[in-house]
Amino acid sequence: VTGIVDYEHRFDLMQQHTGEHIVSGIINKRYGWHNVGFHMGWESITIDFDGMIPAEDLAEIERLANAAVYRNIPTHIWTPSPEELPNVPYRTKRELPWPVRIVQVPGYDSCACCGLHVARTGEIGLIKLFSIVKFRQGVRIEMLCGKRAFDFLSRSHEQNRLVSGAFSAKILETGEAARKMNALLEAQKRRIGELETKVFRSVADRCANKGDVLLLQEE
Question: Residue 35 — φ and ψ, nearest 5°?
């Protein structure tokens, strides 16, 4: 049997996994929370933490995570000896017997892990955090790294470009343009409702001598 590694797919997983290490390490140091769930789906990556994180902190966590990428730090992956292990600090969900494989991003994270990782943080390319929501007793963060993040942001930009054209608004002002359009539509709905009421009342007045009046409006 001859096996061939799909390296493009493997490298994608290496980017996602190493990016998760950096984010989890930052959150563990800053808040003390632990990563209690990690799912690498086809559309997005989610990480679950066992404590609350303010939504307004997400941008700063993302900034710190990408600073680690820009520094292009070499990852350090090794299996300490039974004598070394007690002196190696690392994140783990439970107590582990030797041997324990340690994955470190110096200055950001040290974790017991058997997964695949990039050799240097610069290979991650980009870490993008999209959302944070309450999940069980903590929060769930949705994120993407590397080429997946780049592709998603490129598609998002193309959609925003179309919205920009539809609203005749600058590409960084589409949100405000959409808000103004919604406000205008609400105002028009109220105006139409008021006019319809006047028309219906006028019709009812002309039929006043014919008993009760029921007006049906076609959609």
Answer: -75, 115
Q: How far apart are CA 217 and CA 106, in angstroms?
A: 69
Q: What does the alpha-carbon distance between residue 23 and residue 37 come to, in Å, rounded to a whole number?
A: 13
Give Cβ neighbours of residue 47 (< 8 Å, ≥ 6 apart). 20, 23, 24, 35, 37, 38, 140, 141, 143
Residue 189 tokens read as 């709905």
pLDDT along the chain (219 residues), means of 10: 95 96 97 94 91 97 98 97 94 88 97 95 98 96 97 94 91 90 91 85 73 66
Query: By three-state DSSP, how is residue 129 classified?
Result: strand
Distance separating alpha carbons of residues 65 and 163, to the nearest angstrom: 30
Beta bridge partners of 109: 105
| Cα gap 145→24, rounded to integer Å | 14
- Give dist(CA 128, CA 150) in Å, integer: 9
Rounded-to-integer distance, Cα 63 and Cα 5, Å? 33
- Residue 127, classed as helix, strand or coil, is strand
Neighbours of 96 (CB within 10 A): 12
Provide the token pair at 99. 């041997």
- Whether omega before 97 lies within 30 degrees of 0, making that bond cis, reads no
- Distance, in Å, from the CA atom of 62 to the CA atom of 192, rounded to the nearest integer, reads 46
Q: How many CA atoms lie within 13 A of 107 on its CB side?
A: 11
Tokens of 14: 């290496």
